[in-house]
Amino acid sequence: MTPEFELTHPSVIHPDGLAFSKCGTWLAVANHGNNSVSIFSRRNKLLAMGKLRYGSEPISIIADERLRYPHSVAFTQTNHLIVTNAGANYFSAYGPRVGRFRMHWNKAIPSQTSVGEDSVFQNVNAENKMEGGPKGLAIHGNNIAVCSPEFGIKIYTFREG
């Protein structure tokens, strides 16, 4: 099988997770290598001849110092972006906001939710700074499932705001 499209950008360093928004308008990429998330916007369907193509420049980059080796990303139904951190004991939620010309995700005050006991996280993280936190992420409706080798699977209910 041959790829139909390849997305590259200098902000994408050691991508470790990615997710389409429910509508397919946005593609978020967790950049494990520079502790950020890049979000790309889908190109006009007519100009892309109906194919799935994304712009070459991200419309938003979340470069929050609280991101620690972002691992997985997922969009909620309300386009909030959930990010797990392999090097932190929490996942974060970033709210969407419409800017003058494009969508952005709130970098100022994200919601953070601890996943397990900090002592367990600290023991694993002491051995490898990039592997102690939550990894996998799945969203269905307003439910967020998060998994981690240390804590198993936990399901949370997401409430906007």
Structural overview:
There is one protein chain. It contains one helix and 13 strands, in the order E-E-E-E-E-E-E-E-E-E-H-E-E-E. With 161 residues, it is mainly β. The chain has a single domain (15-157), classed as 7 Propeller (Methylamine Dehydrogenase, Chain H). The strands form four sheets. The protein has a four-stranded antiparallel beta sheet with strand order 1-2-3-4, with no helix packed on it. The chain is globular, with a radius of gyration of 16 Å. The model has no long low-confidence stretch (mean pLDDT 86).
What key attributes describe this structure?
four-stranded antiparallel sheet, Methylamine Dehydrogenase, Chain H, globular, 6% helix, mainly beta, 1 helix, 161 residues
In short:
6% of the residues lie in helices and 39% in strands.
Annotate the secondary structure layout.
Blueprint lengths: L14 E6 L5 E6 L4 E6 L18 E3 L7 E6 L5 E5 L4 E5 L1 E3 L4 E3 L5 E4 L3 H10 L9 E4 L2 E6 L3 E6 L4
Antiparallel strand pairs: 1-2, 2-3, 3-4, 5-6, 6-7, 7-10, 8-9, 11-12, 12-13
